[in-house]
Amino acid sequence: MVQLSRICFRKYANFMDNLRLYVHGGSGGMGLPRLGGQGGNGGDVWVVASKTTTLKKVKDKYPQKRFVGGTGSNSSVRALKGAKGTDKEINAPVGITVTTDDGKIIGELNADGERLMVAKGGRGGTFHSAFEPSKGQAKHIRLDLKLIADLGLVGFPNAGKSSLLTAMSNATPQIANYAFTTLKPEIGKLMYKDYKQISVADLPGLIEGAHINKGMGHKFLKHVERTKQLLFVVDVSGFQLASKTPFRSAFEAVQLLTKELELFKEELVSKPALLVVNKMDLPDAEDRLVELREQLKNPEEFSDLLPDDMKPKNYLSFRHVVPVSALTGFGIEHLKSCIRESLDEAAETDSKAIHQERLKALMSNSHKLL
Fold first, then answer.
1. In what order do the strands lie in the sheet with 66-68?
2. pTM of the entire structure?
3. What are the helix (H) ranges across 136-284?
4. Which of 142, 176, 185, 346 is the most exposed place for a label (fewest CB within 10 A)?
5. Counting runs of H as helices and runs of E as strands, what totals does the chain give?
């Protein structure tokens, strides 16, 4: 049996699917007792869905992760009713669930331009409050990118993604031998002996030029954003999309897939990734696998095989490279254990990071109280 190839680990810090923020509605303005003037209400804090942003962009733009609404204007002789404070907007990606720190759902944003108020501004001072204003709501919230699956299958048409999903799980996708094999994400469940379930999405087949929306490119790439990790699938003997397009080796297919993801959104290639080399039942598969492993170990040495516009900025380091045959079942159980290991390691890392973040916040608050 071909043994697992474990290629170097790297830090996957660029892609984010969870972000914790501090939000504070603006304070209201003072009322004017002698004339019965009413202070302006404080500005509210809103989360607004935007298809052009990512959680990483939010974090990079606002490293303090603090969002405060404007203070309402005081009532005055010139303006008895004070103006409302300026609202603060936080742009967030489409597909976000907004929760409180303890996981209670505040709302969801599923379409570009949708808005959700997360902190209401304080009321301006009025006769009923002895003309004293109130402070705005203050809380920590979490922005969670809703994931459609733990793992997304990434590959060119006819790499055998649908067959692989069928072999691994209880999904029964329609399998056909044409350019766009999968028309919408097909979700399969991997079942383990300890009852653990892992969801895998077979995404629409990618073609060269997907990043500029050839075929179903954009739909595919939008779904890729909403998986925790990527499972690249290539045909060990390479592929040719059509008679007019050039033949691509397995190594070239890997780099082309990487390039397409990179051109659409560079963060995508920072997700943890595994590589499945499918169709190991074909003649000469073993020799081709040896060649592919060698090329993946030193991709720079083989970069001259690729045209300049096909070369990714960074070559992917796969957590596991697993040879399989979806047709015969060879390597499938081993692949499932590699998937489990990769997801468990990532979950442990995330858990430690959240624990550290909470500990830091706790220490910061205790220092303020002293």
1. 66-68, 18-24, 138-145, 96-100, 105-109
2. 0.67
3. 161-168, 217-224, 250-264
4. 176
5. 6, 14
